[in-house]
């Protein structure tokens, strides 16, 4: 699978064939439409005449995750006229009719990204092409318009080139970016939206990867499921998240950081909260060390950008077929990199037999977070975290080195094509 390509092949089954065919049709129609496409070159600018003050790095306001930068980008789409002119303007509220589709039918898709200030002083995005392609797929999945990924990527780059210089000054810092699209038309009734609004904002986020590790509560039948066969778990849409918040809150009240979501009577392991989940264990049959995560082929889990990057780095530097040894991984035992289904029973058995070596969750918000414990019903598993870094944080051997490699790319310690340097301009 090419690194820059988000898969668009969809599994066919009796229950999903119609939806899959519709998605493919909408993607093709969007690309071939004669109505105006999204065009970043037409972006207009309205500068914020009342700019905000940037809070200090240790200001508690950052933990609220509601402090935004000075500007945002918005662009409207209508069924009748296609994409209108993109606008960069002062950050502010939207005006929506109470009958807007997004308020009633969850016609909303989004991406989570970060911009990074490198140790070399440069501003970077991490693999923004993947986010733009995935957002196009998510938008079409909920009957919103097809988005030209290359043009969306250009808008994201331009946005951070304007607000990044002021809001992201210090090396080794980041800011969270949220491109999103909503069904914004004033229409009630279960029907395809005839109007949508795409927007891009930036929000101050605290670091969320826990240096002491995360503790997971494995879901049980009374907690529901995060995604299901034939559903929309592979799309980054709001409808995936709201229904999980009740269980997440209950887990938090019991002292857990996230829910480890299981699926079906067999307890198939899927995701940890809204993050992809990995284990490192010794295979029961062969005894070989494996890095294992759930597969994408049945579209239960999200094709995470961090997940994809973890797999590619592991295959390139740590697997038996590794083509390039890399500092930090040369002394580690070679591993098999596996994308396949496994169950909570498999996980418990590996733990009981001493074959479970480590586990971690990964995603844009939590980055790569080691797991220190998993509880399922009355079974409590303490997951090994044998490595202590210079800053006192702990991790597993493999997760720790992969996290280091990712940080080196994001913050410009190494020159890598995944770290896309932004030409900074600031407000003119």
Automatic annotation (TrEMBL):
Keywords: Amino-acid biosynthesis, Aminotransferase, Branched-chain amino acid biosynthesis, Pyridoxal phosphate, Transferase. It catalyses: L-leucine + 2-oxoglutarate = 4-methyl-2-oxopentanoate + L-glutamate; L-valine + 2-oxoglutarate = 3-methyl-2-oxobutanoate + L-glutamate; L-isoleucine + 2-oxoglutarate = (S)-3-methyl-2-oxopentanoate + L-glutamate. GO terms for biological process: L-leucine biosynthetic process; L-valine biosynthetic process. It is an enzyme of class 2 (transferase). It comes from the Eukaryota. Its EC number is 2.6.1.42. It holds the Pfam family Aminotran_4. GO terms for cellular component: mitochondrion. SUPFAM superfamilies: D-aminoacid aminotransferase-like PLP-dependent enzymes. The keyword Amino-acid biosynthesis applies. GO terms for molecular function: branched-chain-amino-acid transaminase activity. Belongs to the class-IV pyridoxal-phosphate-dependent aminotransferase family. This is Branched-chain-amino-acid aminotransferase.
